[in-house]
Amino acid sequence: MQQSGNEENFMQPLAYRNIDKHLPVLPPKGEIYDECGVFGLYKTDGDEELNGISITHDALLGLQHRGQESAGIAVNNNGEFSTVKDVGMVYSALSEKALEDLPDGKIVIGHVRYTPLNLLDSSGTQPLIIRYIYGALGICHNGALTNFKELKDKLEQGGAIFQSYSDAEMIAYIIAEQRLHAPSIEDAIIKTMHKLRGAYSLVVSSPNKLIAVRDPYGFRPLCLGKIGNSYCFASESCVFQSVGAEFIRDICPGEIVVVDSKGINSYFAYEQNAENKTSLCMFEYVYIARPDSVIDGISVYNARKRAGELLYLEHPVDADMVCGVPDSGLDAAQGYAAASKIPYGIAFIKNKYIARMVSMPQKEKKKRLLNTKLTALAANVKGKRIVIIDDSIVRGETSKHIVTLLKNAGAKEVHMRISSPPFLHACYFGVDVKNEDELIAKRMNTQQIAEYLGVDSLGYLSCESLNLIAQGAKVGFCDACFSGKYPLEIPKEIFVDKFSEKIRFTEK
Ligand code: SF4
Description:
By secondary structure, the chain is α+β, with helices and mostly antiparallel strands. It has 19 helices and 25 strands. The protein folds into two domains: 31-279, 4-Layer Sandwich (Glutamine Phosphoribosylpyrophosphate, subunit 1, domain 1), CATH 3.60.20.10; 294-483, Rossmann fold, CATH 3.40.50. The protein is globular, with a radius of gyration of 23 Å.
């Protein structure tokens, strides 16, 4: 039966928003950003008392670290979609009043998003809802397609029009197109997967089904949980605990898991991917994911701790205290301290309550934030030889500031250790690692970086050791931004200049 969607903002013209009043000022590090977190819930008959909207809201709060620039929830009530979404963090984009006004439904999907500032527009906020001949389709995406331009060019030549620049809209469009020639939504998704290249972990709602999809390389995590008799999907397992769900398992690379009134089913789009390998992003373990998540069988906390242990084996140093840069350097610091037997201590206090700043130029904002977000704990640092552990150095500005804070607080020596290898290459799979020209390791060797930062010594984890931190995972890894070995071919036009808007959006 054909059913229709009802999404309030669907036909609104593309409008750039005054982002300043909505946006948090600083994504996690100010230099590396992940691009999105997804969640979906299917309420099984008998579980009507579950408040799907509240569960999804809480899940998005748990995924907030994956994207802070827009948030949204869509409820599917027998094929009728109602959506609340806006730019901003979960607490500001999804007001209590707006959520109270949302009708309940059997399927609820949610999304938090990061996008480079120059691409921020409200038309790209998710969940994205499209209407087509088989009713409505809601979609939430985490990742990045490497063949976006190729697909867009082809579809536009056939008359397609798009209202956003997002991969999600492209994927939804292709699913709708493929559905015309496929007996079911599952078949349409399988056909769609054969057209997509790159990273995509999706939560999709058709009128009657909730569907989770992970690309054949498994770049981004995606997992399955259970609340009562109902199923849910999330980017990271950490949210299951906070919404009262039980972790069931990871969605496998190339897998499609479908939940409907008949139960839960799994399909695979490929027997194996083209290169017969999987490529989970190593940076999920190093920095992106929450330490209380387990990805493809490996605890993120344990992986970070292991990185710290290996870092000590590769770069030992005599010191009085090992400290981590909050938050993602803390676990590796514990590993380094355990391996070195140097006491672990706290060097920084993080201000947890910075959410936004009064209007001022971006550069000034960043400077002010660096000064207000972290302060050194002089009482614990003064006169000591400090080993400071961080997860990465991108442009070097933040690291330099951290070293200055320690020195100003009276540290006698500062030895910096980084729990990942030097960033040398851009990411095309959903993490906004800056333009290669901006990467400090591209321009300077380790000694020069140490001098620039003002540290007494500097050591990075090697690529070999990085690949050991999640040993035993059920998947292979991508470490391309460190090694330059991309798991799949990157089309020349995006390889040349990843961040040029012209690549995706130039008018012909
Ligand atoms: S290139 Fe780096 S950030 Fe991108 S998916 Fe690979 S490991 Fe992750």
